[in-house]
Amino acid sequence: MKIVAIGGGYNGSFGKPYEIKPFDEEIIKLTEKKTPNFLFIALTQKDLKTADDYYKRMRLNFGTILDCKCDYLRETEIFDNKIVEEKINWADIIYVGGGNTLRLMTLLRRHKIDVLLKEAAKQNKVLCGVSAGAICWCNFGNSDSRKFTSNSDKLIKVTGLGLIDVLFCPHYDAESARQEDLKRMMKAQSGVAIACENCTALKIVDDNYEILKIKGTEHAYKCFYKKGEYIKNEIEIKGKVSDLIKKD
Fold first, then answer.
1. Alpha-carbon gap, residue 218 to 199, rounded angstroms
2. Secondary structure class of 74 (helix, strand, coil)
């Protein structure tokens, strides 16, 4: 299993720098191919034009700049199981974009795409994404999905695909509500949370993990309750997944 879950960062859109390029280069490296097939999923976006524009940016990054062959799973295609299966089978990299996590997971389950993605994990494809696209590979996520539907700033727990046995919290430094809300959320959660600041990512290859950083000064934390006490420990740069997901 190969997963890169990115906590946040600019991809070059809206006049911002392409700061997460090192993560994208690492994703390509994991394929062990010179010109891998890159499949983008933007089901986090309700507006189809926004999703199309998101893909155009990702195609520029992974296609033009990083020399991948690129394709896009459009929302209009998810009703056709054959198309979905063909695109997922074609891909070496499956990248899920950021946005509305709850919407994403609802559509993945409704159209049985979740089953295909879990199978893709067994086929050594590189599964990755940012924010909502990082949460989706985990058991649960600390999500801002309500802001897309009711303009609420209340964060909610969303159930992911369960490939990584953690609750994932993105944007831990960049969005002020995340830290206190994660503390609240973990009171009812028996396992651990991984909280990634922007420009950090959790890379998992089989039984090993690594925390990736852009500048080297960013942080990623493991958070959990033990005997009624909330514990937040900075994660070692490298280690075993079995150690990462246990309380210590």
1. 7
2. coil
CATH assignment of 2-244, among 3.40.640.10, 3.40.50.880, 2.60.40.3360, 3.90.550.10:
3.40.50.880
> What is d(CA 144, CA 83) in angstroms, rounded to the nearest whole number?
30
Token pair belonging to 36: 């891998």
> b/e map of 62-82 (b: 16 or more CB within 10 Å)?
beeebebbbbbbbbeebeeee
Judge whether 167 and 184 are in contact, CB under 8 Å.
no
In a structure prediction context, what are the per-residue pLDDT tens digits for the chain, which is 248 residues long? 999 999 999 999 999 999 999 999 999 999 999 999 999 999 999 888 999 999 999 999 999 999 999 999 999 999 999 999 999 999 999 999 999 999 999 999 999 999 999 999 999 999 999 999 999 999 999 987 776 666 667 888 999 999 999 999 999 999 888 999 999 999 988 899 999 999 999 999 999 999 999 999 999 999 999 999 999 999 999 999 999 998 87
All structural domains of the chain with their residue ranges: 2-244
- pTM score over 0.70: yes
Rounded to whole angstroms, what are the CA distances from 237 to 198, 231, 244?
16, 18, 11
